[in-house]
Structures are given as C-alpha cells and as structure tokens.
Design brief:
373 residues, 27% helix, eight-stranded mixed sheet, 10 helices
Length: 373
C-alpha cells in the first residue's frame, strides 16, 4: 500500500450511525449525516445512510457534486449559507440549503424558477455561537419574505452551537430556540418540517433527561466519524473512536547528536548569548508534515513524543528500538487533523469493513428499520 494513506473502517462508521440513531430516535430526533470533514466521500456517506441517517449535509457544493456523481440520490442539504455566485449550482445539487441572507434566498428562488423546481429554505438563527445566523428578533420578518417568494419554500429553522464559541448549548438556549419554531408557525402559518437543533456538540443535551421540545433533527459529523463529543473530546459510550487511521512511512532513523551551540542576539541586552540543547535522542522522520494534516491533532504512538514538524517532515522521538526505514507508523486523528488529511492531495483513502457502494435502504422508497449490531 502507498503512503501516506488514511484507512477507513466503513463498518465502524455505519455502526456509530446506528448507535446514535437508535438513541435519538425515541426522543423524536432524526440524524442528518455531515460529510464535510471527509470531503463528501461517497462510500463514507453511504455508510452513514446504511446506518440510518435520514439524509446528508455538506458545506461545499463541490462535495455535494461528488456525492451526486457517485449516484447518491438521498436528500442533501447545503449547511453553509450559499455563495451568491453559486445559486444555480446549489439549486441543481441540493434539495435544501441553510440561509441567513434574503439577497441569496432571492437568487436561489430565481434559479429554482428557471429550472422549474422549488428549493427548500432553512433559516439559520443566531443563538449565541456568534458565527452565522439571523438575529431572533429579525427571524419572523425574513420568514414572511420567504413565504411570499415563488421558487422557494420555507422548510424550517436551524441553530448552531460550539463551532466558533466552543460553548455547548444550555437548556435555556434550546428552549428559546424551540419557542422560535412555534413563533414562526404562528406568524407564517405552515408547519415547519425541520427544526434542526445543532450539531455533535448538542448530543449531551439531546440525550439528557429533559424534554427536547420541537427539535427533530441534529446534523452529526464528528460524533459519527470519530465517536467523540466535540466540546469535551470524550468518547461517546458505545461508539468507535478508531474508524480512521492515518499511516505514514519512515524515511530516516537515527540518534542525532545535540546541535552545535549557536550564538543568538538577546533582544533585551543587544548582546550575544550561547544556546545549547539536551543530549542525543533516538528519532524517526516520517514523510508527512504540516502540508498534509494538523500535526497537533495526531495521537502519537505509545512511548513516542512529537519533536517537531516542517511542511513535509514529521520528527518523532522514541526511547524504544527504532523502526526500519520503509516501515509504517499509525496515528489516530482528531477532527481538525482528519479534515486536513482528507483534503490533502497526496493521501490515498483505503476503505475497509464494507467497501461496497450498494444503494442505501434509505435513499429511496420505503424506509427499512435497521437493527443495532
């Protein structure tokens, strides 16, 4: 196998999806699988659908087009506010999109009219994360404008938490969000199909003992892919945290002597001072660096420590016997490292577990109920 590569256990992704779908279902909450961290990889998306996700979501039209070109027919939602310049692409590839700007919604409406379709609009509400969203006091007015447009249909509202602020939602925030759903229905009339309460950071709230109110959807990526809750980083009980493994190749091993002492200017005194380092250490250098992934998001092998990295070299110190040149070293990744690695051009993605691309039982027709395994 070539290196560097990412090994993906599709069976673990499917089982993670099944587990969380099984827990949220009795609470009246469905799961939308988010594929942006894996660049819309069709096989990974299919594993989410096979595990019970009701649809898919992504932030980039290029990723959505990749899903469509692979033959996936399930509903796909664009969860980043569409770029005005991509209105036609969004309407052609996505059934719905999350929106905050009336100018963009107008462009989507015009694009939908040109193609003879109706595009679904979910309005994103600012509930405290301070990233994207309509202020709650402006929501009703914008919803009424959407209702008056041809070519688009108001499908729901959504909120986002913890992406920019890093703060998980409170029960008070979620109750206020549910109240907004009731308010919009009172003003605009039609029942909201989607009340999307957030992302993986909402799981502690969604699985708590309190009522979940109007929320009937969560957009889950990190929880499904890595089996962890984003804010705390803790493993979600019963979920696999090793569905993805990064593999890099050793290109040099040696015990380096300490660097030659060098003279640096001390900016506080404008005088030279001597800089020395500790003694020799056993090191291995791998063919991977900052250009490939978020190095700080890698879990170092047991007994090893990160020494440093450059654009295309990763240097690791180890007290154990050094591996041979050409051998492979395996890493687990956090969400940032996974995102960067999946987007890196030099990584091969190797699928295991269930590499078939058979049609999902949830992509069309009657929905099959899947048993947890």
């Amino acid at each position: 196998m070539s290196c560097p590569r990412i090994e993906v256990d599709l069976g673990k992704i499917r089982r993670n999806t099944q587990t969380i779908v099984g827990r949220l279902g009795p609470r009246g909450i469905g799961v939308t699988g988010v594929t942006k961290a894996v660049c819309g990889h069709p096989a990974i998306a299919q594993a989410m659908l096979d595990g019970g996700a009701l649809g898919l979501a992504d932030a980039r039209t290029s990723n959505v087009q990749r899903l469509r070109q692979a033959g996936l027919k399930c509903p796909v939602t664009l969860i980043r506010t569409p770029m005005l310049s991509q209105a036609d692409q969004v309407v052609q590839s996505c059934e719905e999109s999350y929106n905050t700007e009336i100018l963009v919604i107008s462009a989507l409406a015009a694009a939908a009219i040109r193609t003879g379709t109706v595009h679904g609009i979910v309005l994103m509400v600012e509930m405290g994360d301070q990233r994207d969203g309509i202020l709650p006091e402006n929501l009703a007015g914008i919803a009424q404008q959407v209702m008056q447009m041809s070519g688009v249909a108001l499908k729901g509202i959504g909120a986002n938490f913890a992406c920019l602020s890093g703060l998980a939602p409170t029960a008070l925030q979620m109750a206020a969000f549910c109240d907004l759903a009731n308010e919009i229905e009172g003003v605009c009339g039609p029942f909201l199909k989607t009340v999307s309460g957030g992302n993986s950071a909402n799981l502690p709230w969604a699985l708590g003992e309190h009522a979940t109110g109007r929320v009937n959807d969560l957009r889950l990526g990190e929880a499904i892919l890595l089996g962890v809750e984003p804010v705390s980083g803790d493993q979600i009980g019963g979920m696999h945290t090793d569905a993805f493994t990064l593999v890099a190749e050793v290109i040099e091993t040696d015990a380096k002597p300490p660097p030659f002492p060098i003279a640096l200017i001390d900016p506080t005194t404008d005088r030279l001072r001597r800089v020395t380092t500790s003694g020799a250490s056993a090191r291995m250098i791998l063919a991977m660096g900052h250009q490939d992934t978020d190095i700080q998001g890698l879990s170092m092998p047991v007994g090893s420590a990160l020494i440093g990295a450059t654009s295309d070299h990763l240097v690791i110190g180890t007290p154990r016997s050094l591996p041979t040149v050409g051998s492979e070293v395996r890493f687990q990744m956090n969400y940032n490292a996974l995102m960067h690695a999946m987007a890196a051009p030099d990584f091969e993605v190797k699928l295991f577990g269930d590499p078939s691309m058979r049609p999902s039982r949830r992509t069309q027709g009657k929905v099959d109920h899947l048993a947890l395994v």
